[in-house]
Amino acid sequence: MNPASEFIRKKFSEYYQKKGVIAPREIERREFGFGNDKKIDYRHYSFSTANELRNYLVNSTPLYASFSSAYYEFPLAQPMAKKSMLGADLIFEFDAECEHSCLTCPDCLEKAKLDTIKLIEDFLIPDFGFDKKDITITFSGSRGYHVYVVNDAVKQLSGEARRQIVDYLQAKNLDIEGMIKRKGDATPDSKGWKGRLARAAYDYVQNSRLTHKGYISKKIAEGNYDSFKGNKAFWLKILKNKTVNLGSAIDQSVTIDISRLIRLPSTLHGGSSLLCDYVKDMDRFNPLNDAVVFYNPPMKIKLTKDIPEFILKEQTFGPFKASQETSIPEYAAIYLICKEAALP
Amino acid sequence: MELEDLRFCARYPFTKEAKGYLDFLKLDLDGLDDDLLEYSSKRVTDSLSDVHKYVREKFEQIKLAREPYLMKEIVSFPVSKVLVALTEDMLVKKKFARAESQRAYHFLQFEDDKTLEGIAKQLFTFKKDGKAFLIKFNEYLTYPAEDKDYSLVNLELDEGMIKLDKEKLAKLISQYVYHTTLRTKVDKRDIKNKMFFFFTEELKKDKRYVVPEELGAVEMEAFPPCMRKIYRDLQSEDKVGHIPRFVFSTFLGGIKMPIEEAIALFKEQANFNEGKTRYYLEHSYGLKSNRTKYSVPACAKMESYGICYKDNTCRWKHPMTYYAKMKRYKK
Questions:
Q1: Burial category of A164 from C-beta neighbours within 10 Å (exposed 0-12, middle 13-18, buried 19 and up)
Q2: Where are the domains of chain A?
Q3: Class of domain A3-168+246-290
Q4: What is the pLDDT of residues A227-244, one digit of tens each?
Q5: B-chain residue closest to A82, CA distance
Q6: d(Cα B292, Cα B288) in Å, to the nearest integer?
Q7: Long-range CB contact pairs, B296-303, < 8 A, 24+
Q8: How far apart are CA A272 and CA A141, in angstroms?
Q9: How far apart, in whole angstroms, are the C-alpha atoms of residue A83 and residue B246?
Q10: pLDDT exceeds 60 at position A198
């Protein structure tokens, strides 16, 4: 193992020693996986108590720790089929898709945050009827958020059922033509996508320069689309901001594939040193402040690549040049080492 | 039991009334008559060969039949399910489940509201809202439908409840039949009556239920764009996710690529592990675990998984059809 990894693991170990770890619900039924070079190098681990898990993290200190959304009768068993699945939580992943050349992009993180809020407030609570207490949000420790729905109603949902939920959130395979065909069917008061579609059409007309917009919007309010017809691409365009952006197929597979492992809350992310933290107040949560767990004393590092300006704990660092030596607070230094941008 | 009640049980052999009748008969699989087994086997072959004809004929026959026929109809349902489960062939299982589901759906179209509601009440928990039925979304999704009209996105969902009309409730009952039939599990060791295996072998021999045509030697040039993309990704060091890997494995199994050749296609992956890859492929080919052979997902499902890379050569709804047609075209 290289000196940078050794250093980070030592720091992580000290953190786990001091702060411990919060066990996921029914810890004894979960499968765990860990990694150093990759997110998951080895899996099929199991722990009975939070203390057992903490001791493992203190002593073995992997850079990445993950656990199963599924509950198993035999979490240690291999291959997967022998684990005997008992059910699984419903999980959604939102990763900031950053196209900028920055280490941490507050704008992209903010976008992921808004998508997370939209999922909960526009879909999980009103449409799916979940109670706020069934929903847990965590910051992933890197670029986004995870939303957990822990509720008996979702535990037994198959992969196919979860795929239908993902399709619902993105309006995939929405039968727009069928919805507007029958008069009175899709009005702004309708439930589900019929209502969203009618409200989107109504708002579009209201904000347009159409000559008969009063008449057209009145007809839409009655569920009559005779004077408001468009092709599929047009409808999808006006519905775009009503859908949840669940990102790439990989992010969606977190929801659909119930045998996947996901970042373990209350552990540190080896690619950033940020805490995969439970978020209690989404509006106030600032990952670049609240998920930073290391300390202020200055530490010397040597940069290994050019680094643009970045913000942590409301303080701006950089830009730095490759080979430059500098002294910055420990939390920022560890962050850069985790990003493979510096050496201790 | 009155003749009309027997007719009801024959129409809907998955209801509590039919199950009660089977309990009354004290049905014992080990001591089952050969002619009943033969009848059950025929039920499977009929349902697989022409589902519309199967549904129409059953509908007419049950309307006019007397007790001996109705009894056979009721008993042959669970027996057919066992025979199909013993084939361990996912394609046969799916086709049979679909046929039984369509049979139920067709029959339900001719029922009055009270009968439909009575059957639904046995299977689901729902509330009435005027003429509509409100059912919890998770219960609805226990029996998901592939048709667009019945997928969650096209239904009214509010506070966790889905609103269904009479037609959609009938569809849900038929989906219940599909999924429960498909999920039938049988432990071979529990079957003492050897004739079951005889009829199962007969079912397997019938080429109508296996791949419809000989695909011959593997030709990568005939791969559909989605499989070509996964193949290309596998040749790079970028990590390919679980779903595309699994789908690609089922495709390789579908085109009957020898397992050693298939393993070689995964070798470029940075995390390649021959033992794991072999296990993985054998699992997808239906050679491992419960020996279930997995079928390649249709294009609609590929799109939903986010791994459809459609181009203008895609004129079919299934990657396997694309492969078979392109292969023939290239000859």
A1: buried
A2: 3-168+246-290, 176-242, 298-343
A3: alpha beta
A4: 888 888 889 899 988 898
A5: B289
A6: 8
A7: B296/B247, B296/B250, B296/B251, B296/B254, B296/B320, B297/B247, B297/B250, B299/B226, B300/A173, B300/B146, B301/A163, B301/B146, B302/B226, B302/B247, B303/A172
A8: 7
A9: 19
A10: yes
Spatial CB neighbours of B300, under 8 Å, sequence gap ≥ 6: A173, B146, B317
**Are B198 and B304 in the same domain?**
no
Q: Which residue of A has its CA nearest to B240?
A: A250
Are B189 and B101 contained in the same domain?
yes
Does the CB of B193 have a partner CB in chain A at under 8 Å?
Answer: no
Token pair belonging to B288? 């491992």
pLDDT tens sequence across A81-102: 899 999 999 999 988 776 666 6
Using CA coordinates, name the residue in chain B closest to A243. Answer: B153
- A298-343 CATH, one of 3.40.50.720, 3.30.360.10, 2.60.40.10, 3.40.5.50: 3.40.5.50
Q: How far apart are CA B92 and CA B88, in angstroms?
A: 8
**Contact assignment for B153 to A167 by CB distance below 8 Å:** yes
Half-sphere exposure of A258 (CA within 13 A, CB side): 23
Gap from A215 CA to chain B (nearest CA, Å)? 27
| B228 part of contact set with chain A, CB < 8 Å | no
- What's the rounded mean pLDDT across residues B229-242? 80
Q: Which residues on chain B are in Cβ contact (under 8 Å) with A149?
A: none
Q: What is the pLDDT of residues B166-217, one digit of tens each?
A: 999 999 999 999 999 999 999 888 888 888 888 888 887 764 444 445 667 7
Spell out the SS3 assignment of A294-312: CCCCEEEEEECCCECCEEE
> Which 8-state DSSP code applies to residue A85?
E
Look at residue B326 and tell me whether its pLDDT is greater than 60. Answer: yes
Residues of A in contact with B161 (CB under 8 A): 129
Strand order in the sheet with A325-329: A325-329, A298-303, A342-343
Window from A51-60, B103-112, B144-153 with minimum mean pLDDT: B144-153
Amino acid at A308: P
Same-domain check for residues B144 and B193: no
Nearest by CB to residue B243, choosing from A158, A192, A257, is: A257
pLDDT, tens only, A238-286: 998 889 887 665 567 889 888 889 999 999 999 999 999 999 999 999 9
B157 to chain A: closest CA residue? A192
